[in-house]
Structures are given as C-alpha cells and as structure tokens.
C-alpha cells in the first residue's frame, strides 16, 4: 500500500504577500476601468468598493451626488486605507461625470437590471477600450437620467428569490469578470 501525501496548507503572513506599497501601486499599470457610484448612500459600501477596486488595480472611482467622500472614518472601516491608493474624484451630478467620461472615450456601462441588458457572462470587454461602470443607489439603482446616457447595460444573472445583490457583491463580481477577461 502506498503512502498518502498531503499538502501542508499554511496561511501566508502579510509580509509574504508581496503587495505593492502605495507609491508602487500608483505607478503600476491599471485596468482601464473607472467605477462610477451614482448616489450610493452606505459609507461601508463605498469603503468596500474602494478596497475591491484596489484589489483589481482599477483606474479610479468617481463619487457622485450623495455618495460620501473620503476622508471619513465610516468609509475607512471597510476601505482599510484603499482611499489613499485608489484615485478618486467627486461630481455633484452623475450626468456630468458620465458626459466627461464619454467625451474622454470611455464606454459607459450601467450595472443594472434593465430591458435589453447584456448578461455579464456573455459580455466580452475589449482590451483596447476604456470602460466606466456605473453602480447605483442601494434602493433605486442607477438613476433614469443616467440610464438615458449609457452605451450598454450589464446584468448579473441571478437564480434565487431575491431581486438584487448588495452593491459591494455586485461590484466584486463585475470587477473580477472584467479582470479575468482582460488580464488573466
């Protein structure tokens, strides 16, 4: 009878993760994805999106309307310092941010449940393009005035009884999908 061999799994320590510091992160190549938060009300959600954008090295976050801005301790609870690594800007009106991003050559995509939306699993981003992904308010979603300005709408397929994912879960799913399709 042969001997069984088992892998010895051991968690990595922080110094073994080989992560860039803030200056190295700022200088590294980013995924050509800008995140637009359209009137997101929860500061914990905002912080989580900063942290996830850092994890996938996204270009920047655009905070709009009632979306809170760093520095704020409630954002930092979940961002864990990502507000210093991820570039961000604020616009009082989401439509103005979308207009500027569109004029700068970004494909404007709402992450929303809408008529004629494209399912995420069937969407193929192109390496040569730049994308602005819009995530809406936790209750009302992406505003109708912003929906009137989009180039495309992506929907995450769902199979349960609930109507939507939490915005941070949706962002993580979409960020990973874009990263996997463009970088992996």
Write the layout of secondary structure elements.
Layout lengths: L21 H6 L3 E8 L4 H13 L2 E7 L8 H7 L2 H4 L1 E5 L2 H10 L2 E6 L6 E2 L10 E7 L7 H4 L4 E4 L11 H16 L2
Parallel strand pairs: 1-2, 1-6, 2-3, 4-6, 4-7, 5-7
Structure summary:
This protein is an alpha/beta fold. It is 33% helix and 21% strand. β1, α2 and β2 form a beta-alpha-beta unit.
Kindly report how far apart the N and C termini lie: 41 Å
| CATH fold type | Alpha/beta knot
CATH level 1 class label? Alpha Beta
Order of helices and strands: HEHEHHEHEEEHEH
Helix content: 25-40%
- Count of domains: 1
Q: Quaternary status of these chains?
A: single chain
Compute the number of helices. Answer: 7
Strand order of the largest sheet: 3-2-1-6-4-7-5
Structural class: alpha/beta
Beta-strand level of the residues, as a percent range?
Answer: 15-25%
Mean pLDDT: 96
**Biggest β-sheet strands, sense, barrel:** 7 strands, parallel
Which term fits the overall shape? globular
In the CATH classification, which architecture applies? 3-Layer(aba) Sandwich
> Which homologous superfamily in CATH is the superfamily?
SPOUT methyltransferase, trefoil knot domain
Q: C-alpha Rg, in Å?
A: 18 Å
Count of strand segments:
7
Low-confidence stretches: none
